[in-house]
Amino acid sequence: MDLLEALEDRAEFARRHIGPNDAEIAAMLKVVGAESLEALAAKTVPAAIAGKALDALPPPATEAEAIAELRALAAENRSDIKPLLGTGYHGTHTPPVILRNVLENPGWYTAYTPYQAEIAQGRLEALVNFQTMVTDLTGLPVANASLLDEGTAVAEAMAIAHAATRGKSDVILGADDLHPQSRAVLASRAAPLGLQVRFAAVAEIAAVVAAQKPFALVLQYPGTTGEVRDIAPEIAAVQAVGGLAIVAADPLSLCLLTPPGEMGADVVVGSTQRFGVPMGYGGPHAAYMAVKDGLKRLMPGRLVGVSIDAAGAPAMRLALQTREQHIRREKATSNICTAQVLLAVMASMYAVWHGPEGLKRIASRVNLQARLLAGAAARTGLTLRHQAFFDTIAVECGDRAPALIAAALKRGFNLARLEGGAVGISLDETVTRTDLDALAEVFAEVGGTPAPLGEAAGGIPDALARRTPFLTADVFNSHHAEHAMLRYLKRLEDKDVALNRSMIPLGSCTMKLNATAEMIPITFPGFANIHPFVPTDQAQGYLTLVRRLAGWLCDITGFAAVSLQPNAGSQGEYAGLLAIRAWHLSRGDAHRDICLIPSSAHGTNPASAVMAGMKVVVVGCDRDGNVDLDDLRAKAEQHAASLAALMVTYPSTHGVYEEAIQEICALIHAKGGKVYMDGANMNAQVGLTSPARIGADVCHLNLHKTFCIPHGGGGPGVGPIGVTAELAPFLPSHPLVAEAGPATSDTVISAAPFGSAAILPISYAYIRMMGAEGLRRATQVAILNANYIAKRLDGHFPVLYKGARGMVAHECILDCRGFQQGGGVLVEDIAKRLQDYGFHAPTMSWPVTGTLMVEPTESEPKHELDRFIEAMVAIRAEIRAVERGEADRADNPLKHAPHTAAEVMADAWPHAYSREQAAFPLPYVRAHKYWPPVKRVDNVHGDRNLICTCGPLEEYAQAHHLQAAE
């Protein structure tokens, strides 16, 4: 046995994850001037913070072992028990064509946020489909490209309403049949902002609105116990006192119910989970938001709009980007900087696959199931709490409720225990006729009377039945045959650049390998089909996974405790700041509300600080990109009595390890504040140092960066936080699952107790297969790859910032500002020209305007780095030709990039440079040509003529040409 074990290659996965082999690493080390990876790390990481043993991590597992281990954990979750618990989570069938070609397809899950619109037209079209689906179902004109979950979407709607009413009131009222997790998130979000959340019984809403004059009213439609009622009078009541009406609505119900927009709602939110996205113990799922036209500029998150490209053809891109946190910073009304793109794509494709008639058929079948069960319950003498319902019935059982729930569990069903002795049963598309017969037997057993399925009871009142059409666009009525759907998905995928095509060298975004072995477990039924509110003895596999993963992250960060609840990096920031705020409050220091933030910080940092009830004071940076110590000392001293926290990123957003980081942390601690570390650059810390060793008190981790959860075209993400022992009592908790957090906390960040639990197996598998030494080596190679690129390009593009010993961290900033004066070439021209070479551009104009921030990650092999370097050198030669007058300042490949196949193959070629230079600038491009589907997109035109839903794009282009002719 020992001989067999000796032959097992425990480092195999790490070698496959890390791109360069030993010979390539040796060659690259020679270029950067280091003898070994250890020597390179010593030249790069300040000696004072170096050292992290990762003692608590298990030895590395093979791919087969890790998958088997996760399969065993999944088997400990009771996916054989069908959860009919409702509260916004439902069983669903993911159409196999979507499962295989979207969720399991790296062409969709490894793409980045569609900032470079020209090479993201496929995802953008899918998101326009999503927005159209939402506007059609809700009856409102504008929808965004998704939010994190329904609970946080309700909270985001609250922020919109408060901003729109300009603070005339600080009271928001909710109906008491709002989902409990939404109530909890709403209360947590309101408290730091000084807003008061109150709830009223449904029968008393109109009177309470008139008396309290809230700035918003939040309604659930249908209610959490299933009631369907006419909410138009309640909407009118809040609007009569100057408030906004927010409705949280189940989208499947809207196939049969009058849309809230037609009832006058100002904002409608909800979750599209039941549109083909597994429950996954609570996430990730795509929430939605739709608003009246006058509120569109207050809407958080991403918004995709239709515009035109340089040739006048229709093209899509992210719209209204002035809402971005990197621009608005502390003036932002939301810290949401992403969307749940992969899940929104799945939900939109579910609607494309089924079409309007298919969705109506599913909704009608679910409603009929509920009506048949209602009839069976009535025949046993049980009564219904509500006679009008869509998919959920509330059966009044009195003291027989425990017996009914136990009888259902014995037959394989989870039912909901409601207040007042009622039992809730929520039906979904996975329920079969056999299931209904078994549930009828439960009624018969408890009621003592046979209750065969027969006559239906209750349902949707005719006055509330939907009468308007929806999903009338061609895309929802064209792809119902599998060949048609398969080809549609492939056509969209081929328009985009993802990691399965080439390196995506985005600084601060860490687009690294998402290994197939890491992805396989997320579709195991034991992970996919678990409701977040099942009894915890039915989710032991998830709880074990959470405990182990949190423990490993504690070891990696050096912290005492970790919460996995935040379901995005922005939410991790927010949760960390709330923990600091709660700690100060526990000590009677409510006056400590100043948050110092360097000017180089991610834009979500100041937005999160404001949401946490803090006041932002900006600290300057010096000429080397480091925090200006003199300015920090002065401002820390000036605000010493009220200092709450410092937010700092390490390595810095300028791509260097600041030598003074421990001094910075000590300075804040001396003034009574806490240090929050933004973990965006954790990929340069793992195994070499840690936030706790550096001196931070709290740090959020982007699992979608350092720990291999794929970006999914802009989401999902996970943003857990690690904290010191004294902050651990203030980590997030959850009202429905005690195991989610400490009993000492009432802070709820996400709707689900463990956030996006379904994708935690990805990071679990990554850490499990890499082991301590693999993780350390990954960090070292990430630093090597960045320094290799910096060294190779330094003579062509100046590297803006370097550390004390001339090295960069895991990313480098290329200064492109001088090209504008010399040849009129902008950094955008370089970014668009890279598309002709088959590459996604590095991060553009952030953190310094006119620069490119490059992060290659450890996953890229040397030949891919060399290919990128060759492309950048060739582009520099094209710039030089303009600077020397050898190429026209206006008519050159940079200014007209990217070049489409239609343009290059057209009969006419109006440019002074050749078609070959345009399309095939280097020999390797010819063999692996990617054709951008559109030319450069006109963002200004799109914002002036905002169109965010499906329509005949040819008509849009024709209208533009007519407008131009006039």
TrEMBL record:
Residues 15-443, 476-732 form the Glycine cleavage system P-protein N-terminal domain. Pfam families: GcvP2_C, GDC-P. The modification N6-(pyridoxal phosphate)lysine is found at K705. The keyword Magnesium does not apply. Its EC number is 1.4.4.2. It comes from the Bacteria. Its cofactor is pyridoxal 5'-phosphate. It catalyses: N(6)-[(R)-lipoyl]-L-lysyl-[glycine-cleavage complex H protein] + glycine + H(+) = N(6)-[(R)-S(8)-aminomethyldihydrolipoyl]-L-lysyl-[glycine-cleavage complex H protein] + CO2. InterPro entries: GcvP (IPR003437), GDC-P_C (IPR049316), GDC-P_N (IPR049315), GDC_P (IPR020581), PyrdxlP-dep_Trfase (IPR015424), PyrdxlP-dep_Trfase_major (IPR015421), PyrdxlP-dep_Trfase_small (IPR015422). Residues 778-899 form the Glycine dehydrogenase C-terminal domain. Keywords: Oxidoreductase, Pyridoxal phosphate. One of its GO terms (molecular function) is glycine dehydrogenase (decarboxylating) activity. NCBIfam families: gcvP, PRK04366.1. The glycine cleavage system is composed of four proteins: P, T, L and H. The glycine cleavage system catalyzes the degradation of glycine. The P protein binds the alpha-amino group of glycine through its pyridoxal phosphate cofactor; CO(2) is released and the remaining methylamine moiety is then transferred to the lipoamide cofactor of the H protein. Belongs to the GcvP family. This is Glycine dehydrogenase (decarboxylating). It comes from Plastoroseomonas hellenica.
